[in-house]
Amino acid sequence: MDYHELMNLAKDASKQSYSPFSRFAVGAAVLAKSGKIYTGCNVENSSFGMTICAERCAIFKAVSEGEREILAVAIYSPNSDDCNPCGACRQVMYEFQGDNEVEIITESLSNLNIRKLSEYLPYGFKI
Question: Residue 116: which domain range?
């Protein structure tokens, strides 16, 4: 998989963001083990606990379609250089990484940054 293509899909997904409160749009594209790609955007709510991040939106779409292993997640925000996942998203990625460690793709100054999930969450919780 070309991670530039994955990032472009994340950029497209960020255009669907519903972020009237923070004005911080985020899009994500998830590559599942099956080879299918799922996209998502952040969706805010005036009851902030009801808000969902782009990464979890995309992962939950994948899971709802029967996917159980995520290989890579591209994250993009037009509001931030090198937009990184929050702690909740890191834990959800950890839950669905399967046998292959998730690669997280971000972008700064048009260069892709590719990091392993363990760099973000060295001691993830799993039952």
Answer: 3-120
Predicted TM-score of the model (pTM): 0.95
* Helix pair angle (3-14, 54-64), 10° resolution: 110
pLDDT tens for 48-63 read 899 999 999 999 999 9
Asked if pLDDT for residue 13 goes beyond 90, the answer is yes
Q: CA 74 to CA 121: how far, in whole Å? A: 16
Q: Which of 55, 67, 103, 107 is catalytic?
A: 55
Residue 125 in domain: no
Q: Assess whether 55 carries a catalytic annotation.
A: yes
Do residues 54 and 63 make contact, with C-beta atoms less than 8 angstroms apart?
no
CA distance 59 to 36: 12
Residue 58 lies in a domain: yes
